[in-house]
Design a protein that fits this description.
globular, alpha/beta, six-stranded parallel sheet, 347 residues, Glycerate kinase, domain 2
């Protein structure tokens, strides 16, 4: 029995590599073999996961943060510099702004544009833009302006790794509240996105994945003919997930918060799809959960555990190892939407 430990990062708390190591340590303490395979879906931590899987290097470059302040950010370079990885969270990330500074209307993606231009200047012919974890809902206007002012992307091809399938016009309503936007602010942001869409060369409204990072993906698609792809599928292919899955008896995945957006293109939904097709059970460890028992059952989650500290991640791994080996019926550990007590019927 080998357990494939393939979590995403716990945003703002633990990178995916640390989560995978902690859970795997617990699994191994339960005398079960664990294979560490940290994953991502285009959100925070995708750059680290790709560098771990594919090799490459980091370069420190100047960029602007979500409030336009100059910071030192990073750019990933793969294939001897032919491919660059720009992580939105490294320039326009939600965690870069203190709670008292959050301003969903003022937050800009200009820094993402700075990183894209840095990649162009280094000779990259393909630029992977990971777009999760942003503090922004500017429809990519900041990035587009920064890139245009610097002369564009030349012959470089932009590929956007999207962590959601949400269309452009739904970006503010779906994710604005997570970025500190009130209902009134969400309405203004939605109106701003609608105006931008009408001004763009190509209208991104109604197209899946154009609403990622507050519409950044849609803006890059419109202005620079960027290719939009599922970030989760791209990363899973890059880390040879299916090959590892074929040798596993169970999968443990996880993320910082489990909610309805987890099944809208994020890594959990993609791991579930692939594992279910391969008839491999999936166990989930998360920092918090806003879903009901019925919802988890619908998505064929074998078991659920809450863990927000490293020692809790290790303990969750040990407990899961015991249940996986003995075939014990899955138990939900912790409160999830005030309903998860006892066992999942039929699991």
């Amino acid at each position: 029995m080998t357990v494939l430990v393939a979590p995403d990062s716990f945003k703002g708390t633990f990178p995916a590599i640390e989560v995978a190591d902690a859970i795997a340590q617990g699994v191994e303490a339960g005398s079960v073999s664990a294979r560490r395979l940290p994953v991502a879906d285009g959100g925070e931590g995708t750059l680290a996961v790709l560098l771990r899987a594919l090799g490459g290097r980091l370069e420190e470059v100047p960029a602007r943060d979500p409030l336009g302040r100059e910071v030192r950010s990073v750019l990933g370079l793969l294939d001897d510099g032919a491919t660059a990885v720009v992580e939105t969270a490294a320039a326009a990330g939600y965690t870069m702004v203190a709670d008292h500074e959050r301003d969903a209307e003022a937050a800009t993606t200009a820094g993402v544009g700075d990183l894209i231009i840095a990649a162009v200047h280094r000779g990259a012919t393909r630029i992977l833009v990971t777009v999760g974890g942003s503090a922004t809902t500017d429809g990519g206007a900041g990035a587009i302006a920064a890139i245009s002012e610097a002369g564009g992307v030349g012959s470089a091809q932009l590929t956007v790794l999207c962590d959601v399938v949400t269309p452009f016009e739904r970006a503010a309503a779906e994710f604005g509240p997570q970025k500190g936007a009130s209902s009134e602010t969400v309405e203004r942001l939605s109106q701003r996105l609608d105006l931008l869409a009408r001004e763009f060369v190509r209208d991104p409204r109604g197209r899946p994945m154009t609403g990622a990072a507050g519409g950044l993906s849609g803006g890059l698609w419109s202005a620079f003919d960027a290719e939009l792809v599922s970030g989760g599928d791209f990363v899973l292919d890059a880390v040879s997930f299916d090959s590892h899955l074929s040798e596993a008896g169970a999968v443990i995945c996880g993320e910082g918060r489990l909610d309805h957006t987890s099944f809208a293109g994020k890594i959990l939904s993609i791991v579930l799809r692939r594992a279910t097709a391969a008839d491999v059970p999936v166990h989930v460890v998360v920092g918090s959960c806003a879903l009901t028992q019925e919802t988890l059952a619908e998505h064929q989650i074998k078991s659920f555990s809450l863990a927000s500290q490293r020692e809790e991640l290790v303990a969750a791994g040990t407990s899961l190892a015991s249940r996986i080996v003995t075939g014990e019926e899955a138990v939900f550990r912790g409160r999830c939407a005030s309903e998860l007590h006892g066992r999942l019927a039929g699991s």
